[in-house]
């Protein structure tokens, strides 16, 4: 099949691009007439039939006159993980969200954002008129997706009542049940589906019986309840209280391992914390040069909207120029900004080769910041006027036979007297000196050293961390790195030179593009470039997020502790702990062969949803009896998981699956029960920015419209909180009910409904540090906090409710912008060393091989779990191309239900570069088949510039089977599939299992355990 007709025809089989044509015409019509136009536009020149404005401002007096028919409230968008502060216009009579824009108090939506002291009326005025000659420079915006996803509130496919499956799992047939029936069945269990007995949550919550007989390290049977979450949308504190402290299960994970986890893990290695994985972002407004690797400003990532705004300003008004290194050119390259934005194509998954090549040149040409790196401690850095420090000078034990091989040399190794435990914080790191190894002190230390040190157990070989990094970088020629990454040698050198030509005002940024087979080391290497120029905590360099105002443990209430709280214990289900802690290891060691383990373990990783899918279907390390999916979709999101899903549909594998979700997505579709949940502007929560904001910021979300879900007997809307409170009360779990929340005076308060929790959280946010001022009656009226006024007054103390009202009236709490810097430094500085050598990494042994890995950044070709090279299994000759995924700023994995987005981008044809297309005789509009070792898909090709050689790119967010892409039958009535929602293809469908794993599991990065979707080996053919 050839020609453009196939673009329409090929995808129109699923109804996609055909819709585009019609939808686009509709869009044009609406543009001409105004979005809310009927056939006859009103007689207004510019706005047509758009909704009347929410308020008017007298240009002379500045007086605000609200529109009495509309409410305008500051809350949060959850159209993506950025979770921006937004303002929502609501038709009061229809309880309908009309439009969404930005919250001018929020840095996520506004630059510069207005002072927090501004009244709500002043905030309205600030957005409308920035002053003479300033136009709308203080406008505050939502992105295109943020404007569209409000449609999800009224989506006819929402789950509004509890559902129970009818027939086999995944058959798409459901019945509605009452809230009481839901609680009874999931708590008490029984023969729930006519398929035999199912243990209920009451039985599973056994805090005595071991989760695995003979392996006490896994904790009690209560751990058989496992909980999969998406992102923390500001409600996770509530979930974790219920799951860990009340129910007693230790098994909770989020979606990071199949989102941007490899980047976060690589960054965590350098920042010295593999669990919380700190990361820094460039100071976009003040940097002079930024390398964006695998991510593009304003295209995707987090916080993409803010980054887009700041970068656009900096490249036009400031000094910024940048290079986007990515297999796919997207709209980050901006013609009018000329040389200030460039694209550099790279072979998928080879960012580490690029970074190590740059490092080699940097070392060989002395372009690293020696003065910065020579500081072995905070005291030395302070004395030298530095804003951070590293362990570049610390000595590392390199003797392979030494029991502490890969660890940093400490005072106790030499028998120095220490106050405290060996290898604790009191045990000094050692550096080289003319007199031998000495404790790291307040003076600079040698950067490069290798030699022997006399220890208590004899002489031992050591090298400094920077010596090891240099050796690693110099282990290959730049030409070899160039061959691997596809970037010519001269370009690599040019990049290294430019990066090291701006002092501290240069930075490397990355995020989700690191999800390859070597994503962890790629990210660690990229981030290490920042450390080599010492840019952390400097204006124009890199900065961590400013943090937030805590809601759970504050000056007013303690939402974290309560009488009878359980301490959940046991090694986690995802095996993100050392294998050496297990009984399996001990048993195997006793036989003389401790390695390989029965499956991979990832001690240097956080919770891993990717590995949970393997754990679930294999019952390794133990079996799960109940699984809760909360607003998450691993069945769609994990590459290669399609190979495991059928097993998950077997109730014998996991007997009880409950989803808490507003929609029937690909994962909730295979559950036994679905608990309805709130959407967007109906829901509560507190979040803080992940990064890219230098000031403290807590965004508050609250129901600015009446939620649509059915009510329970007490009149509460059924959702996450109602469900968990209901289960807790039925089971008599601690931490819920009338005596659940202690205040600062020790008096107990109830937790019987969501408001009991979130309103008290708002008081904590308001009272932290210098308390916020009380909301005025005008603030409350203008922001429509009046909607929850009765709840505020009934729940909180007289001295508190106006403080909480301020938090909701302003959509959160935001530190003023002038607190971003102290002089040339970040006000909220990261205060621990950058690890040039990470000893946790450098000393661990892979459970599946028994071998180690470098403790510094490194470039290695991708490997499977058994240590064999992926290319040995799938050689280039047979699999000559590589597939990558990319995101647009509009669509993500859960926005497909917003049909106005589908009118703009209706599907995702396969993007093929010109040279590759020519080699295969492919033209735009042809149908092509992509084959990987994991499967095949067929789609329409679009031939375009801006794709790296031998690479095919697929946009993420399409190819759905959930959200209405398939028929759903509820109570015998069938809601037919909407082909528009099924349009396009999903790269994850051709993701791979790791063929070397005995117990089936998807291909993951060996250190971070994160999914692989960048650089899948593949073939392409025209059909
Ligand atoms: S970036 Fe857009 S979709 Fe994401 S939270 Fe912000 S406004 Fe919503």
Question: What do you see in this structure?
Answer:
With 1023 residues, the protein is α/β, with parallel strands linked by helices. Helix content is 25%, strand content 16%. The protein starts with a helix and ends with a strand. The structure holds iron/sulfur cluster. Iron/sulfur cluster (SF4) binds at residues 77, 79-80, 82-84, 86, 142-143, 145-146, 304-305.
Derived from helix and strand composition plus strand pairing, the structural class reads alpha/beta
The poorly predicted ranges are 1-39
Ligands and ions found: iron/sulfur cluster
Main beta sheet strand tally, sense and closure: 9 strands, mixed
Radius of gyration: 28 Å
Give the number of DSSP strands: 38
What is the topological layout?
Layout: H1 5-12, H2 17-33, E1 55-57, E2 64-66, E3 70-76, E4 85-91, E5 96-102, H3 120-128, H4 144-148, E6 163-165, E7 173-176, H5 179-188, H6 201-204, E8 225-229, H7 236-247, E9 252-253, H8 261-271, E10 281-282, E11 289-293, H9 304-317, E12 321-325, E13 341-344, H10 351-364, H11 370-373, H12 378-383, E14 395-397, E15 430-431, E16 438-439, E17 450-455, E18 458-464, H13 465-474, H14 478-485, H15 489-499, E19 506-510, H16 519-532, E20 542-543, H17 583-590, H18 609-618, E21 626-630, H19 634-637, H20 642-648, E22 656-660, E23 673-675, E24 685-687, E25 697-701, H21 720-731, E26 737-742, E27 748-751, H22 754-767, H23 777-782, H24 789-795, H25 801-809, E28 812-814, E29 821-822, E30 825-826, H26 839-843, H27 870-873, E31 881-886, H28 899-904, E32 910-913, H29 914-919, E33 927-932, E34 935-944, E35 951-955, E36 968-970, E37 973-975, E38 1016-1022
Parallel strand pairs: 7-36, 8-9, 8-21, 11-12, 11-19, 12-13, 21-22, 22-23, 31-35, 32-34
Antiparallel strand pairs: 1-2, 3-4, 4-5, 6-7, 6-23, 10-20, 14-18, 15-16, 17-18, 24-25, 25-28, 26-27, 29-30, 31-38, 32-35, 33-34, 33-38, 36-37
The structure holds iron/sulfur cluster (SF4).
Iron/sulfur cluster binds next to helix 4 and helix 9.
């Amino acid at each position: 099949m050839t020609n453009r007709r196939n673009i329409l025809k090929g995808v129109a089989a699923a109804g996609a691009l055909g819709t585009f044509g019609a939808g686009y015409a509709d869009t044009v019509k609406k543009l001409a007439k105004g979005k809310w136009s009927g056939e006859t536009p009103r007689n207004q020149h510019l706005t047509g039939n758009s909704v009347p404005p929410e308020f008017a401002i007298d240009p002379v007096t500045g007086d605000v006159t609200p529109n009495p028919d509309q409410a305008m409230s500051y809350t949060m968008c959850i159209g993506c993980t950025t979770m921006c502060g937004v303002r929502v216009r609501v038709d009061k009579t229809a309880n309908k969200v009309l439009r969404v824009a930005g919250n001018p108090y929020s840095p996520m939506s506004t630059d510069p954002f207005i002072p927090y002291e501004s009244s709500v009326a002043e905030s309205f005025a600030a957005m409308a008129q920035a002053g003479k000659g300033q136009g709308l420079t203080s406008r505050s915006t939502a992105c295109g997706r943020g404007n569209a996803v409000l449609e999800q509130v009224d989506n006819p496919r929402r789950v509004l009542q509890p559902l129970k499956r009818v027939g086999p799992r995944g058959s798409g047939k459901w019945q509605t049940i009452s809230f009481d029936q839901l609680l009874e069945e999931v708590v008490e269990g029984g023969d729930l589906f006519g398929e035999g007995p199912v243990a209920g949550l009451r039985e599973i919550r056994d805090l005595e019986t071991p989760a695995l007989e003979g392996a006490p390290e896994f904790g009690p049977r209560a751990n058989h309840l496992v909980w999969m979450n998406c992102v923390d949308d500001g409600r996770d504190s509530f979930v974790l209280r219920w799951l860990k402290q009340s129910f007693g299960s230790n098994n909770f994970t989020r979606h990071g391992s199949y989102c941007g986890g490899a980047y976060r893990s690589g960054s965590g290695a350098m920042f010295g914390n593999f669990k919380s994985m700190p990361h820094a972002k460039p100071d976009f407004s003040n940097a002079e040069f930024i390398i964006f690797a695998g991510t593009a400003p304003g295209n995707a990532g987090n916080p993409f909207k803010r980054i887009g705004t700041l970068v656009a300003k900096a490249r036009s008004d400031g000094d910024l120029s940048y290079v986007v290194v990515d297999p796919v050119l997207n709209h980050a390259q901006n013609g009018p900004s000329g040389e200030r934005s460039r694209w550099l194509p790279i072979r998928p998954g080879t960012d580490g080769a690029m970074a190590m090549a740059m490092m080699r040149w940097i070392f060989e040409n002395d372009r690293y910041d020696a003065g910065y790196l020579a500081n072995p401690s905070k005291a030395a850095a302070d004395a030298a006027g530095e804003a951070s420090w590293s362990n570049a000078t610390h000595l590392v034990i390199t003797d392979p036979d030494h029991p502490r091989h890969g660890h940093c040399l400490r005072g106790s190794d030499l028998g120095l007297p220490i106050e405290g435990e060996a290898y604790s914080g009191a045990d000094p790191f050692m550096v080289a000196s003319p007199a031998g190894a000495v404790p790291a002190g307040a003076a600079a230390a040698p950067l490069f050293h290798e030699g022997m040190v006399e220890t208590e157990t004899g002489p031992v070989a050591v090298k400094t961390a920077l010596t090891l990094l240099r050796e690693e970088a110099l282990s290959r020629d730049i030409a070899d790195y160039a061959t691997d990454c596809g970037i010519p040698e001269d370009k690599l050198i040019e990049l290294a030179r430019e990066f090291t030509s701006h002092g501290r005002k240069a930075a490397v940024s990355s995020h989700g593009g690191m999800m390859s087979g070597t994503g962890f080391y790629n990210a660690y290497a990229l981030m290490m470039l920042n450390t080599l120029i010492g840019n952390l905590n400097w204006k124009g360099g890199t900065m961590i997020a400013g943090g937030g105002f805590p809601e759970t443990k504050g000056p007013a209430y303690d939402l974290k502790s309560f009488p009878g709280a359980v301490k959940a214990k046991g090694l986690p289900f995802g095996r993100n702990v050392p294998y050496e802690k297990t009984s399996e290891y001990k048993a195997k060691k006793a036989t003389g062969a401790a390695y390989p383990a029965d499956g991979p373990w990832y001690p240097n990783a956080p919770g891993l949803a990717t590995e949970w899918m393997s754990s679930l279907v294999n019952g390794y390390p133990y079996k799960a009896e109940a699984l809760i999916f909360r607003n998450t979709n691993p069945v769609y999101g994990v590459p290669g998981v399609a190979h495991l899903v059928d097993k998950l549909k077997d109730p014998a594998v996991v007997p009880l699956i409950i989803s808490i979700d507003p929609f029937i997505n690909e994962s909730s579709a295979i559950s036994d029960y679905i608990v309805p949940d709130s959407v967007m502007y109906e829901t509560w929560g507190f979040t803080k920015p992940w990064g890219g904001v230098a000031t403290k910021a807590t965004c508050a979300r609250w129901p600015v419209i009446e939620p649509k879900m059915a009510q329970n007997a007490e009149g509460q809307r059924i959702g996450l909180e109602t469900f968990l409170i209901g289960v807790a009360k039925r089971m008599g779990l601690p931490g819920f009910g009338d005596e659940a929340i202690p205040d600062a005076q020790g008096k107990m308060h109830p937790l019987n409904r969501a408001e009991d929790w979130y309103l008290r959280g708002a008081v904590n946010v308001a009272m932290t540090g210098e308390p916020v001022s009380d909301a005025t009656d005008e603030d409350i009226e203008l922001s429509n906090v009046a909607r929850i006024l009765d709840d505020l007054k009934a729940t909180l103390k007289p001295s508190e409710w106006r403080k909480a009202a301020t938090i909701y009236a302003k959509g959160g709490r935001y530190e003023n912008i002038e607190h971003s810097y102290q002089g040339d430094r970040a006000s909220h500085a990261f205060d621990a060393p950058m690890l040039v050598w990470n000893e946790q990494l450098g000393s661990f042994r892979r459970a599946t091989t028994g071998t180690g890995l470098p403790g510094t950044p490194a470039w290695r070709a991708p490997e499977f779990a058994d240590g064999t090279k992926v290319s040995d299994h799938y050689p280039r000759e047979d699999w000559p191309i590589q597939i990558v995924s990319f995101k647009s700023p509009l669509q993500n994995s859960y926005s497909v239900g917003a049909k106005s987005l589908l009118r703009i981008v209706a599907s995702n044809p396969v993007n093929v570069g010109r040279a590759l297309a020519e080699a295969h005789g492919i033209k735009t509009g042809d149908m092509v088949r992509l084959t990987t070792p994991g499967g095949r898909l067929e789609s329409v090709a679009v031939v375009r510039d801006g794709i790296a050689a031998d690479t095919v790119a697929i946009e993420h967010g399409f190819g759905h089977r959930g959200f209405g892409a398939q028929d759903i039958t509820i109570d015998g009535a069938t809601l037919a599939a909407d082909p528009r929602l099924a349009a396009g293809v999903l790269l994850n469908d051709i993701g791979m299992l790791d063929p070397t794993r005995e117990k089936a599991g998807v291909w993951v990065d060996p250190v971070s355990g994160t999914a692989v979707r960048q650089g899948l080996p593949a073939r392409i053919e025209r059909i």
